[in-house]
Each structure stands twice: as structure tokens, then as C-alpha cells.
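Input/output pair, single chain:
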Amino acid sequence: MRASILLIAAVVPVLAQDTSLVRESEPLTPMEEAKRFRLPPGFSAQLVASEPVVNKPMNLAFDEKGRLWCTSSAEYPWAVKKEQWATQEGLLKESRDKILVFSDRDGDGVVETPTVFADNLNIPTGVLPYGNGCIAWSIPNIWRLEDTDGDGKCDKRTVLFGPLGWEMDTHGMISSLRMGMDGWVYATHGFNNTSHFEVRVENNAAAAGRVKKPTPSAGNTGVPRGELDWGYSLDLHSGNVFRFRPDGSAVEPYSWGQVNPFGLAQDSWGNFYTADCHSNPITQLIAGAFYPSFGKPHDGLGFAPVMCEHAHGSTGLCGVLYLDGGVWGAEWEDHMLVGNCVTSRINHDAVRFTGATPKAEEREDFMVSEDPWFRPVDLRLGPDGSLYVADFYNRIIGHYEVPLTHPGRDRERGRIWRIVKEGAKGQREMNFEKDAVMRRRFTGPEKSPAGGGSRMLAATAEWITMHPGEKSAWTAAVVAESLEKTAGEDASLRQTLRVALRALLQEPGGFAGLAGMKPTAGLAAVVRTIQTPEASAWTLDFLLNEPQADRGELRNTVASLARNLPADGEAKLVGFVRRTFADDHGAQLELAGAIRQGLARRGGEPGVEAKAWLGEVAAQLFAAIDGTAEGTEWVPAPGDEWVLQKRPCADGREATLLSSLGSKGEGFAGVMKSAVFACPDKFAFWVNGHRGRPEKEATERTYVRLVAVDGDVEFVRAYPPRNDTAQRVEWELAGHVGKRVRFEIVDEDDNAKGEAYAWLAAGRFEPGVIALPTEDGDGFIRTAAGMASELKLTGQIPVLAKLLARKGLNGETRSAVATALAAMKQPQAIATVLKTAPAALQGVLAEILAGSAEGAAALMDCGVPVLLTQPVVAQKVAALNNAVLSERAAAMTKGLPPASEETAALIAARIRNHAGAAKDLAAGQAVFKVHCAVCHRMGGEGNVVGPQLDGVGNRGIERLCEDILDPHRAVDPNFRMHVVTKKDGGVLAGLVRRDEKDGLTLVDASGQETTVARDQVAKDETAVLSLMPATFGVSLTEAEFHALVAWLATQKAEVRSEK
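Output:
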């Protein structure tokens, strides 16, 4: 049953990783597998258990007697269906899933004798030994499983919480149950499942008589706990970490976000760390903080700091272990191990602290297997100091990349390994009761808040977050002062203090704790996230009396106020923006966006003052756009000589400017010319730079100017201020309005005399008739389109129609313009462009037109029946529930081949041609950035709307071609499109970006968000369709397509040499 193999650590050849989705090798026996492990010097591997005793081990745990508990599944990934349940609560008649207990019967310190503690379970992914049994997850509940007669087998099963989510994803359920130092049980909640927790009356009698309030969720963290059903209920969607009382009497959130955490570890300070499949391999959790997920927002305080900035070569990390307390000796102190079930390795990181802020530094992998079936899914440290590894031994590990029905999925084989280190001492002791008392005393009124160091301060602040109502010497002012004194590089401590400060201020009378404290920008950044009238009044007072130089912070403050202020406050806010930025149209436009965002999230119409001001800003923007050039190209293109640089401005903002101070330094001479645009009545910009040595008279060889295209006539010129800080310049151009002009940045000083001290830079153009190469010139058009739609600016319809036909707009911008026209009941303007548009653009416009009855009719009038066969168009037309339109669509498409047949033929041809096609990898990467990065992140770049694509090359050429050309073929259930029918009859389609109490936000294929007020949603249906457009067969040339596929195929897990 048990084997011991000493693995000698020496320099060995590079171990190539098998990163194929379906391993081609055959399974090995446990003895054969063990011979293929590579470990550091002084470590050896021993087999604890294997099939047939254990099938697929998922979670491990040790009890106080030193026994090893293991959850084992032979049913995964298929849950036992409800019709086969013995009871409604989820007790099963028959299942091969179980919880095993391994004991050390022969006294040699090694667990080896198995007992089945509980059987007939349903994919048990979490277990925690407790009392006379354990607490465990088994679909659909968190159970208390007890042995009441002492025979070592479960004879009593009680539901603590449930039913909870499992239907969407059986590999993203509740797991990693851990007892915290405070006596609460902590656990992870997995990807895409939605769970509603409710305390049962039998577990807490107070649950029966309580007044029901809104359930705590990620969308109402700014609401005081007293206004929520805190402790009695909880709503979770997708990745989160939560905690509950082991008797089921209370449940609370711990941290919000992540994608699919599986694995939870603690250090000796009690800090929790997770392994996450899709966001970061290792994350230190901060109580109450938010972490990135698929497109979900944070709470206004920003996402918590990133601990691990590398991906370990895959998106399949699970099982995590923290080493400290001297358990493996000083050389392993503050090191972490994480299971990588995709690359068949256990990765290794050293943790380095700056104050209380950890950073993971990648080290050589701890354990490498030459057997690609090795799948380490959980790591636990035993009481003997050995590492125990749950090996989900399998040919296939991917839940979505390979069909669940694939015959290669193994159900029978599984192993548990014990990795022994010579000289390891027993596991560190964690005295839960003593620790809780220490932390309580530290925060109690009898103890001064001073002292303790950064990590103790972080622990104290976290205790405050979880116990804000407790009497303490730590008032809001004390926490705020600690925040002000904490260095910026100690990012985790600062975030922990911010969350604690918010918790204190959310309590009744919390703002009294700020009495006598001078308001600061740091304090305001916390207060603005609190959704109470008191907080809004404080923030508005701060805004009116304490000018903020940071425009980003100002935007966030204005957006928060716009959402939470009453009408009279809104008028004061608009007045403030008008006064403060009367001569800065760019700032007004930016803050108008913030106010629009706040109003959209709050719902309802803007007040009289706000509507008037927004109309003025929109009119200025449309006037500028109507005169812009059709491109934002600068000549020459920025490179080594002309560069984009961050420079300080006199108003306190740091801005990107186009500079002549490139690789040639001040010896460079040249001219940078903008695209042509129509001259406005006023034109402002920011410029910095020098005009020769400061002690000498200024030269006139560096300057900017406005030049007429016809005749090359110079209208006006300005010189840099002989300063590194940019200054604002404004030109009055009333006599030249409408003329075709360009902006030039001129550096004629070539340092011929060797005394050059001359360069210049310019940017921040107002109005936005030109944009720097990194600025989003199309963004102005998208903003204008959104404002026209919201404010019903019918006078701008001709401009929008002209923009829709403009060449050079990107897909997101054209979609925004078309959406605005559709919202303003102008389907004919869209149809006019559609008739002569290329096929890819026709597909985009057809989807927009199909969102209303008038639009669908206009689409059919265009006479392009193939567009009606597009899956999204067909789904939206059906959702209109209009018999006349449905009959007309059926008649128009009669006899057309199904879209799937045409697509299949195209896929076959592209696969056949790929081997002989030219493969320009640089071009392929460029195609990805333009067409794919708007939704997909890879290598840390791109947006997280759809699935992340790290390691996508493992899919192979054939699968890549299928996924690109036919995205609707096998849609991941977690990324299926929602079709929302509004009460006014309109239809929207997209992924749900945010599902909040006051609104539903969808994102479309161009990355554009649309928010629908909750009370305007008539129906929300999930379609078996992908958000990804099925138009890349025509929108990409065949050369671009092959370049993209070739580049994606190179994106595989990294192979490193091992020692």
C-alpha cells in the first residue's frame, strides 16, 4: 500500500511539460509514477493511498488526533441528479463518493489505515474535522456529519446551510474549509455558481423573529450592516471567500471577488491565502476587500493589492500551503507552495514583506513530475511536518476545454502522497482561543492603540472590520490617523486600514469619531464609498471646501455623489463643477461622464440644473467632433525620436504629452504634424519644454503653431515656458472657424553648437479635435453618442448619421453610434449604412437593429436575408415576440443553408490551408490586440470580459480555428449571452457585467456597457450563444487569420529548467 522513494536532487535535464489538454501517455502504477517525481535535496515521496481505496481525492484535512481526512469522488464531473436523491435536502440513495479517514494504527507516525466515514455523497469538495465528525460540502449543502455511537462511521447528517449553488459548475463549488483563529469556519465559493445562504431556525432561534432586511452582497458593501440582514443571510456569485459559525448560527462574507478560488492557507499571523484558477496563483486576503473577477467592479476603495504578479504558466492553480513557524527550517521560512494541475507541478514562491504587504517571488518549482497524469489539487501540512498532496490522477483536468463526456476522463485512479523533509519538526501550534483573546485585548479600551508594528496593526484593523460594533479605543479618527501615517509602499496595510475605517464610519454615530480631525483626501476616498446621507453630506462639504488636485480622485468623488445625493445636493455638485472648471472643457467632459455614470447606477432622470449643464457639454463636444479629422494620425509616427512621456502640469495633474526629447536627446530636430481638423473658435493645450540654456536669452527654435492646410499659412504660434512643468495655453480663433488646419510641434534646435538645452512637449487638447496616439480619439465620439441617447438630443441625429458612415472608426465606436441612433428611434439611418457596408460591419449593425420592432423591420427592408440567420440576430428577433416579423424572417431565410454548414466548410478550409500559410507571429499578436484584447486577457494584458487565454496554445490548431470561426459551437455555460427584454419592448444582448439591486449592466462584443434599471427589465433569458461575434471569417483577411492562429498556438505554458 505504501512505498518510500528517495529522490536525489542534482542537476537534471530540462523536463518538458506536457501541456496538451488530453494527455497522450497511458496511466502509470503508483510505484511507476513515484519514480518520475523530482524534489529538492533532502525530500522524499511516500505513497499514502491510491485506487481502489481512493478515487479522485479533492480536499485533505487533519484532525486533533493526527488522522488524515480525504474527500473522494468517482462521480465528478457529473453530479447525481435531483431525481435520484432520496430526500429533497439532498441525501442520496446511491453514490460512490465518500469521505475517508486514515489512521496511524502501527504507531510509526504515518497514516495508512483507511475507514469510510461517510458514503453516498455528491461530489464532496470540502471537509473540516470537527467535534465527533466533520463539516463537509456535498451537493447541495454544507453538512454537519456526526458519529454519535463512536464506531468511526457517520450516522447523523444535519444541514447547516443549503441548498446552495452547484448547477452551473461542479468544479467551482464550496471547498477548502478551514478553522480560523477566531473559531469561525472559512471557505471558498467557486466560479459562476450563485448561492443564497440563510441561517436555519433550528441553528439560531433568533432567525425566526428577525425583521428581514436586504441580504449582504457584493453590490451593497457601502450600506451599514445594521440596514442589512447581516449574519443571517448572504448572497454570493462566483469566486468569494466567506465564513460561518460551525453550528450554523451565523454566516458572513470575508472577502469579495476572485474567479475560482480552490485552496486556502493560513500563516502564523492568521492571514488567509488562496489559490485561484483565473486571477492570481496566490492572493493574501484582506477582510472586507475586493479582488478582480470577470468584469465585476470593486467597492470604490479599489481592488486589494496584487501579491503574485506571475502566472506559473497556467490558469489551473489549486491547493496552497504557507510555510513558517520554523516547520521546515529557516531556509523555508515565509515560503509558499501551490499546486499546478495543468503543468503537473507544485510551484514554489518566496514571500517578502514590506511592512504588512507581501510579494511573491517565483522560485524553482518544488515538485516536478515526468508523468503528465500527476494532478496536485490540494496541499496540506501534516502534524509530523510532512507535506500531503492530493493527486487527482487523470488524463484530463480541464472542465471546459475538453467536453465533460470525453471518454478519456478517468474516474477511478487517485493518489495521496506524503512528501517528507529530513529534520522537519511538527506542525506549528495555533492556539485559537488564546489568539482571539490577545487580539481582543489589543483592540480593547484598556490597551493603547500605539505600538505593535505593521503586521500587528494590520491584524488589529482586520479585527475592527469584522467586529465594528465592539467597544474599542480605535475610533475612526485613530484609524484615519494611522492611515495617513502609513507609507504608500505598504499597500496591504493601507487597504486594511481603509476597509476598517469604512466599517467604523458605517456604524451609528460613526462620524462622531472624526470630531476635530481635519478632512483629508485619503479620508474622503473612504467616506465616498459609504451609502448614507451622512456620508454624502460630509463628502459634498469636503468637495466644496477642500479643492482636490488629483483629477482621478475628483472624478471618483463626483461619481459617488451623483449616485447618492438628493436632488438639492445634485444642484450644488453641478454648480461646483461649473465654477471650478469654467475654462476647462476637457475637465467638464470628464466629470460629466462621472455624473452620468452615477445617475445611470442610481436610476432616474437628472435634475434641471444637471440636465441643462450636460446639454451644454454635449453641444460643445458635438461641435468639436463635427469638425474633427477622420483620423488621429500624427506624422511622423512616434518612435525613438518623438516619444510619449508623462509630465507634470501646473494644475497638479500628470499627463501624457508628445515630446521631442527621445533617444537622441536635445540634439534632435524635427517637426510633428497632427491630422487635419476644422478650426474651432477656441483651442487650448498644455506645453512644456526649454528654449536654450536658462542663463542665456531664449531662442525661437522650439515652438508650437496652428497652420492652415491651404497655403501652409501660420495662424498662431506659442513657445514652451522654459520649465519642465507644462502650462496651459489658449488661442482665440474666431476669425478662422471652420478652416482646415493642423497642429505642429516644432523643434529646430539640432545642437549644432553643442549647447542645446531645447526640447518641448504638448498635449491635453481642448476641445478634443485631435488626440495623442495613445489617447482614445474614438472615445470622444462614444461619449457624445451616449449623451445624445440619454439626453434625447434629436438635433444631433444628422451628426451621428454622418459619424456612422465615417471611415476609420473602430468597432466599439461604430457600435456605440449605432446603438444611440437605435435608442433615438432612427433605424433608417443605420439601415442606410448597412446596405453598403462590408460583411463584418453588416453583422454588427444587424444585431443592433434586431433589438426593436422598428429596427428589425428596417433590417429586413435592406434585403440581406443571410443576416437574419446570424444566431444573435435570430435570437433577438424571436425575443421581440412579433408574429409578423417572425413570419417575414422565416420567408426571407427559406432555402438558405444553415449558418452552421457554411461555417463548417470555412473551418475545414482554414484548417486545411493553415499548414502551408505564411505565419507572421508579430502580425498575429497585433491582430489579437486589435480584435481580441477588448474581451480577453492574456499575459496580463487585455480586458477580463470573456475567459482568460493564458495557455490557449495548448488547444491545438484545429480547436483554435473552431473557437475563432464558430464561437457558438461549444459555449462555456459561464459565458453564455443574456437576452434582456425591456418593458418598452426593446431587446438587449450581452454578458452580465454587474447584477446589482438597482440595475443590470450588460457588456457587448465591442466592450461597450449598457445599464438597464431593474424596474425596466421585463425578461432576462440566457441564450446558448457566445458574446464573441461569429464574423471573424470575413472581418479578418485569411492572412490575418492564419497569423493570429499561429501566434495563439505559441502561447503555451512556460518550460523551465529544473535543479
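The radius of gyration is 31 Å. Residues 608-626 form the longest helix (19 residues).
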